[in-house]
Amino acid sequence: MQIDKRYLFHGFLPAFGSACCFAVMAMCIKIASSELPAPQLVFFRSLIGLLIIVPIVLPKGLTFIKTPVLHMHIFRGFISVCAMICFFYAIGHVGLSESTLLNATSPLFIGLMSMPILKEKVSVSTAIALIIGFIGVALILKPGTALFTLAALVGLCSGLFIASAKVLVRYMATTEPVLRTVFYFSITTTLYSGALMLWLWQTPNLFDISIMVLAGICATGGQTLLTYSFTHNDAVTVAPFTYVTVVVATLIGWIGWEELPDIGSSIGTILIISACISLSFQGKLPNPWKLKKPT
Prior knowledge:
Largest sheet: none
Number of domains: 1
């Protein structure tokens, strides 16, 4: 069988690597969340990412840094901070598998956005996939029962914010290279979360700092690899790898915290992943998600 080397090196390996990086990051966040609030975790994650990316970008000069879509970077940074705060809060209060899965529900929200925002008609198959996906969400959230938690609902909100950020990234991909996108992401998220530190700062110990350095490295690596994958490939070939993070995070949660999803959550997981992958293969993600070959 012939292996598509272009997809292997520009799609599969970066997407798989990003999924593993994000799973390790989630593990670090869960460890640190027992001591530090979610906004401060976002600040450390963003600051470390900024310290990593600045020495890489600055030698390229002001011409590289200059962008025609600064307003979109600023808006994307705000959305991303909201997504990370919701995600990190959920990690600290619910299982790793549930929090990472709720964070990965963005294709469902992108499908909903295609109607009012992108003015796209929704086919029967897309509507069925969305219904199945949100049934899965309900099985995980368990509304109306004693098992329902605000933290899980906050985790779902992270999926909504991620969906919005993904749409912006793909629109910006026509003019913005990967490093510039990650550079502005790191700057804006550091500034936004840094402003919150005026009220929420708690002095971390050396262990917490070490854990957050590792989280920042994994997050920046994962962000760069994921942005590269989505910029150079059709979403159909990349989006399913998002759920590798869920699988790896579930294994980490089981080994490290003896967390195992109940039957309802397990069924919900299957429904959500199936629905999201179905939406990707139906091509019902926004129009900007088109193949862009690497230059």
